[in-house]
C-alpha cells in the first residue's frame, strides 16, 4: 500500500531531474515543489525545457536522474495512463479530438479510460463537465464544427474527465483572440478555485501574470527564476532570455 502524503506535504515534488537526449541536456538538475491548489506558471523561450519537464511529470518521458513524487508516491517509473488514474491530467496545445465522434462521445472515452468511481451514470458526469466548460449546447455536435476556442475548452474538458488533482495546461490560449484568451483564462482560474492544482505553460505574459501565484522560468534546461510573477518578470535574466531585452 502506498503511504499517504503528510497533510502539509507538496502535491508534486520534482527532485533533481536531469533528462538528456544523446549529448544534449534538455533538463539539468531541476527541482521544484508545487503545493495543493496552487496556480503555477511555467515560462521560458522555445527549447528551454518546458515541454520536456511536463513530459517527465506526465510520464511521456522518464528522466535519467531524479524523481517525481505525487501525493507522497514516487511515480518516476509509472507509465502515463497510471499517472492519469492517480490524478495527473494534461491538455495539449493542438487539440486532437476523435473526429468521427460527437463532443459528448469524446468525453465519454476519457471517462471510460479514467475509470473514476462515481454514483452517477457516465453520460451525466460527461454532461456536467461540458456544462462546466460552457459546451453543453455542443454535446451532440461533431468536433469538426467547433471553433478554436471551443476546441480548447473541449481539450480541457477531456483532461477534467479524469477528475485531476493536477492539471497541466499546455498553451491552451495560443492563437486565440484577446477576448477568447480571457474566456479560457477565467475558466482555468475558476478550476483552480475548486482546489485543482494547475501548471500553466504559456507565452502570453499578461495571462501568466494574472493567473499565476508563482512562476518558474526555464532557459537551456535550467531554472533561472522562481517566485512571485512580478518578481520573475522583473528578473534581468528572464528579460534577457525570454523577452530578448
Task: Describe the protein's architecture and organization.
- With about 240 residues, this protein is an alpha/beta fold.
- About 35% of the residues lie in helices and about 25% in strands.
- It has 9 helices and 10 strands.
- The chain has helices at about 50-60, 80-85, 105-115, 120-130, 150-160, 180-190, 205-210, 230-235, 235-245; strands at about 10-20, 25-35, 40-45, 65-70, 75, 90, 165-170, 195-200, 215-220, 220-225.
- A 6-stranded mixed β-sheet has the order 6-7-8-3-9-10, sandwiched between helices. A 4-stranded antiparallel β-sheet has the order 2-1-4-5, covered by helices on one side.
- The chain starts with 11 loop residues before the first strand and ends with a helix.
Strand residue content? 15-25%
Helix content: 25-40%
Order of H and E elements: EEEHEEHEHHHEHEHEEHH
Mean pLDDT comes to 89
Strand order of the largest sheet: 6-7-8-3-9-10
Please name the fourth-level CATH homologous superfamily of the domain at 12-96 and 166-243. P-loop containing nucleotide triphosphate hydrolases
Low-confidence stretches: none
Summarize the structure in short.
The protein has 245 residues and is an alpha/beta fold. Helices cover 36% and strands 24% of the residues. It has a domain at 12-96 and 166-243: 3-Layer(aba) Sandwich (Rossmann fold), CATH 3.40.50.300.
Question: Secondary structure elements and their pairing?
Answer:
Layout: E1 12-21, E2 24-34, E3 39-43, H1 50-58, E4 65-70, E5 73-74, H2 80-86, E6 88-91, H3 103-114, H4 122-132, H5 148-160, E7 166-170, H6 178-192, E8 197-201, H7 205-211, E9 214-219, E10 222-227, H8 229-233, H9 236-243
Parallel strand pairs: 3-8, 3-9, 6-7, 7-8
Antiparallel strand pairs: 1-2, 1-4, 4-5, 9-10
Helix pairs in contact: 3-4, 3-5
